[in-house]
Amino acid sequence: MAELERVSMSLEKPLLQRLERLVRASGYTNRSEFIRDLIRGKLVEEEWERDEEAVGTITLLYDHHQRGLSDRLTHLQHDHHSNILATTHVHLTHDLCAEMIMVRGQGKMVRALADSMRREKGVLHASLSMSSTGKSLA
Amino acid sequence: MAELERVSMSLEKPLLQRLERLVRASGYTNRSEFIRDLIRGKLVEEEWERDEEAVGTITLLYDHHQRGLSDRLTHLQHDHHSNILATTHVHLTHDLCAEMIMVRGQGKMVRALADSMRREKGVLHASLSMSSTGKSLA
Amino acid sequence: MAELERVSMSLEKPLLQRLERLVRASGYTNRSEFIRDLIRGKLVEEEWERDEEAVGTITLLYDHHQRGLSDRLTHLQHDHHSNILATTHVHLTHDLCAEMIMVRGQGKMVRALADSMRREKGVLHASLSMSSTGKSLA
Amino acid sequence: MAELERVSMSLEKPLLQRLERLVRASGYTNRSEFIRDLIRGKLVEEEWERDEEAVGTITLLYDHHQRGLSDRLTHLQHDHHSNILATTHVHLTHDLCAEMIMVRGQGKMVRALADSMRREKGVLHASLSMSSTGKSLA
Predict the structure, then answer these.
(1) Residues 57-116 in C contacting B (C-alpha not used; CB under 8 Å)
(2) Do residue B22 and residue A46 have CB atoms under 8 angstroms apart?
(3) Is some CB atom of chain A closer than 8 A to the CB atom of B1?
């Protein structure tokens, strides 16, 4: 755990009261922790904007009856095997699979991989969630 | 201008260094101002999520040759005249008009108004930008 | 008005039924118009991703009592006068002003202008709404 | 695989040309598939707006040295065990863990679960990616 520093800042009185309300409404017990999370959220946005190394989770929804689809998705992942940290497969229904794939790499590459999965026939949805290697967050 | 209060919070040392970098990279000269803007951004998000009174700007792009379109857009705005603060019309090209419409009201109403304009034939694009009455920001 | 072409496409039967439901739920009277709007929305996203010439509306909320702020906002706009199509000012309350500024230019420039306005002391919120010159939509 | 229906729609000629360009630029080989994906994307947005049953992936980044954190995250997940489909843990560094958690339930519940994880001390980032049960997509 990193050493904590005491930092002070100035806030308009009404803004401070609204901050207190926001902290409570969000279920935080600690104002510093709330502001730390705002800063971290901004840092992750910046990593993705600057195309730095990032971590993202691709969530796929697909119909495994689509001929050859599982093969193609597996090949695509192997082409990026050094960037794929983990893949978890869930059997949603008799027909449908959900898969979550954690990818580490530059933002653009991760987006391109999600896009290339989305356009496979039989893939009904592909969404991407932006996270971080944590290097700039800890 | 509201009275300022001095507030102190604790930050992990590396997070503090990254915050300093983020403040500089964003062109702010003042760390407090940067954090105040993070908090205000969160407050505006919350106003829209809770469907409180908000201010939004609808930007329309449309082809004024579409028969009856200007009339219908004007009628729609008159139906909400108490909510519309200002409308500005720009002649983009011989054919195309851009219009920005500032609306005050509950978030859901503002969204619904933008949607009803988007589906008019001849409207090529309608986007909505979420702002605030400022009641909870000042 | 551009000439219309008849295009046919294949849709899974249940997807077609859901499309019909979506068209009705969104208040469209015409399926083609609904799909055209989906395509146009995608084209505008692409213009901004590729940093092509775009149109955007910046909505500002600020306290005009902040010393020198109006001057600085005016200077900033004059520095980009060839890109600013229109500015409309609304007096929200005794203290607060809302301003909507329509800007034409490359996406990155428009974002940077919005950022430089946001970080002025006294500006409580700055949001950006992405629209288009319409060149690729009509 | 559902039966396909042939549907025809009218498109302005220039819009059709841009659609063709968009299809190629996005790497699709099939125009119908491109439009199907636009429609499905819209259907998933609608499921989340209407708070219908949805599938979402929460990606967490946390420091496992934070005392009691793993316990608390595990308890939180057990409180929702009927909604959690799978959890995968990745050891990012000596200190940091990334976890992806697939959740099925109403949109609001999934968001609230993500929020309650985010505010745990030691959790550096929590992001949510919106997917679907696929009921309205297949």
Answers:
(1) 57, 59, 61, 63, 65-66, 85-86, 88, 90, 92-93, 95-96, 98, 100, 102, 115-116
(2) yes
(3) yes
- Read off the pLDDT of each residue in C90-104 and give the average, rounded to a whole number: 95
Which residue type occupies C49? E
Q: What is the pTM of this model?
A: 0.87
* C-alpha–C-alpha distance, residues D32 and A123, integer Å: 14
Extract the residue ranges of chain B whose pLDDT is less than 70. 1
Give the fold, CATH level 3, of D53-131.
Answer: Alpha-Beta Plaits (3.30.70)
Same fold, B13-49 and B53-131: no
pLDDT at D25: 87
How far the first Cα of chain D sits from its last, in Å, is 8
Largest Cα span, chain C: 63
Q: Which of A127, A133, A136, A137 to mutate to test the interface with D (most CBs of D within 10 A)?
A: A127
Residue boundaries of the structural domains of chain D: 13-49, 53-131
Quick check: A32 contacting D, CB < 8 Å? no
Instruction: Give, for all 138 residues of chain D, the pLDDT tens digit.
Output: 578 899 999 998 989 999 999 999 888 988 999 999 999 999 999 899 889 999 999 999 999 999 999 999 999 999 999 999 999 999 999 999 999 999 999 999 999 999 999 999 999 999 999 999 998 887
Interface contact flag, C46 D22, Cβ < 8 Å: yes
Q: Does B124 touch chain C (CB under 8 A)?
A: yes
Q: Assign a CATH topology to domain C13-49.
A: Arc Repressor Mutant (1.10.1220)
How far does Cα C130 stand from its chain's mean position? 3
A98-130 burial: b if 16+ Cβ within 10 Å, else e: bbbbbbbbbbebbbebbebbbbbbbbbbbbbbb
Cβ contact (<8 Å) for A61 and D27? no
